[in-house]
Amino acid sequence: MKSTHSSNHQVIFFPQEVQTLFPGQPSLYRISYQDWTNGYQQIMHCHADITEILLLLAGSGHYSIGAQRYPIRAGDVILCNGGVVHDEFPKTHETYQTICLGIKGLQLPDLPPNHIIAHNKTPIFHHPAQFDDLSALLQIILRQADQQAPLYLHICQQLMLSVLKLTEQMIREYGTENSSQQNELCAQVEAYIYTHYQQDLTIEQLGKLFFVSPYHLAHVFKQHTGYTLKQYILRRRIGEAQDRLSCSSDSITQIAREVGFEDSAYFSRIFTKYVGMSPKFYREYRTKSDE
């Protein structure tokens, strides 16, 4: 397992290590504490096979999940299914701290793999008692994982299963519907962009594809996601580039081209604008953080 020591602290569990000990159970993949107060964040991205339970310990802002943008505040529990694009916007000049649990191999009854909540349910919860219970368990997991005392994997695994049950209980007690015709349109457009973000998409093309006027689509998309189409695609490309810079040895030019930028100099300018550092510096930063 890996550990990152600083105000941003992440512990990664290697799946084969956990699966060997606990076959047939969901796998604890990572636990992380993040402090974004001084900048830097992961731009729009998704994890195909990782379910996330995130607690906002301090701060406020907005969080985008799929085609919907939500206001968030300290004390919120944010649930993100695997394979769903998500993005966050901390309020500037304000302390912003999170703790997040990543789980692999989750299969709950009546839900797709790696889903913890139905797609038509609101994934943001604000209930102090449940938040306090979840926060306490996640803090213990983080401490146990960091110290790696005897039996820590067994303790972390059991605590993760308890977190899942408490989260399921919270959804059953407080889950609310989050569906509308406009939301469904945005979800369809978002799903299309998910697999075509490298292409030069226009609002006119998408309007024809989904049988709505470009004006109506532009209005609804901005209303529900908080982005214009151009902003959304740029953030999606930059988020994918962040992942590839962190996890591959491909050249910056190759990564730029694969995420939809033909001009690597333009890619570097846009990346720096959104992330706050150049692609080269970002790769070096992430490499040092993971050592």
TrEMBL record:
Pfam families the record matches: AraC_binding (PF02311), HTH_18 (PF12833)
GO molecular function list: DNA-binding transcription factor activity; sequence-specific DNA binding
Superkingdom, natural source: Bacteria
Residue ranges annotated for the HTH araC/xylS-type domain, each copy included: 187-285
Keywords noted in UniProt: DNA-binding, Transcription, Transcription regulation
PANTHER family the UniProt entry points to: ARAC-FAMILY TRANSCRIPTIONAL REGULATOR, HTH-TYPE TRANSCRIPTIONAL ACTIVATOR RHAS
Protein name, as recorded: HTH araC/xylS-type domain-containing protein
Native species: Butyricicoccus pullicaecorum
